[in-house]
């Protein structure tokens, strides 16, 4: 089995070709900073061609039987397994993911694909009772048509697949624009998988390019019925405004300022290990990461001591080394933002308990004690290996601190008393929260999404099927109806 080629190109209407724009984009390995490849950026003509192909192919795809669609998804799953090493290698070299991160991301994306394979059999209508004698009242569920998918660089394979697979499985066509840093794992390798699996041409289209060149044009294009976007809250707001002007639906999963709460009766060792994973997995570059660790004052010192000791022991370095636990930040711009937040926190009074050490795109784990919830490092999404630990007194203060943010994506609560933890969890203004675990969780059959400025809509399971379909009310009058005006 030969490895995939042409992964640096657009995929439009079944053809692999360079973008038509004037500029090019370098895709750099975050660890070595070597140029993996450069791609020609797309322009508006490429976008038009992609939407035209998608619109033309979608109607025939909608008519395919559930078994025809399911067969393609089953084959795509087989290909994902056969090419697992190839795919995870791309995750490591393109996004800087460690071996653990690459394996985890592959697994979650694979499950999203497999769960979506059932959707062609699960999208169904309904018959309602009618007030009118002799009338049959039906509701048909139909695909939206063409769905626009814009994805980020942090978990590109998973965050693309969780929209691409259900969109196709519910009868839609897609136009995908991946992040510039991760075009392969965010789009082209997934397109290759579906192409090899036998997906009809035109249903899956990829346009590579800078957001500054084609981002607005894609959002405002008249063909796309819904925009599925995962990324930062500021960009999500911009997309929502532009989509509203076009009367388009949006499905937005945005940033998080997630609180991991450790109550005074928590299993300390388990809470420390959970916090370590929830904070430092993929260098903290996860929207669900533990952005703030809230610890009751009764166990604060013990928690901080144990957490800091383990954070210092994490191995930092080459993500291709299976023993590496902390790999590189995706690019220099992100490194600068993270280090600025660290310095702002220290200037505001936070106490660094680890050496502040940066080597290229590597940032060694940072632990900040005596953080207050009003500091920038506690109010902004860090997206890096920086752990602000905040002290609280009692459950009510923990709830107040956790909710003191404009975002509400995920969270966690630790306590040996499940009912106590549940009462706290239900009081947190967040779309997802996990008891005696950490905030980074994603099951392909469970509801996923945020509250407040962390997003609009829900992913996974029955929820994504509703997002990516629409309803049509059709009635049939089986017997003559008397009218008031006859």
The side-by-side strand order for the widest beta sheet comes to: 14-17-18-13-12-20-21
Please state the second-level CATH architecture of the largest domain: 3-Layer(aba) Sandwich
Question: How many structurally independent domains?
Answer: 2
CATH class of the largest domain: Alpha Beta
Mean pLDDT: 97
Flag low-confidence runs. Answer: none
- Find the structural class using helix and strand composition: alpha/beta
Shape: globular
Radius of gyration, in Å, reads 24 Å
Number of strands: 24
- What share of residues are in beta strands? 15-25%
Provide a count of the helices: 16
Helix content: 40-55%
Task: Indicate the CATH topology of the largest domain.
Answer: Aldehyde Dehydrogenase, Chain A, domain 1
- Major β-sheet annotation: 7 strands, mixed
Distance between the terminal alpha carbons, to the nearest Å? 73 Å
Pfam family, one: Aldedh
Family: Belongs to the aldehyde dehydrogenase family.
GO molecular function: oxidoreductase activity, acting on the aldehyde or oxo group of donors, NAD or NADP as acceptor
InterPro entries: Ald_DH/histidinol_DH (IPR016161), Ald_DH_C (IPR016163), Ald_DH_CS_CYS (IPR016160), Ald_DH_CS_GLU (IPR029510), Ald_DH_N (IPR016162), Aldehyde_DH_dom (IPR015590)
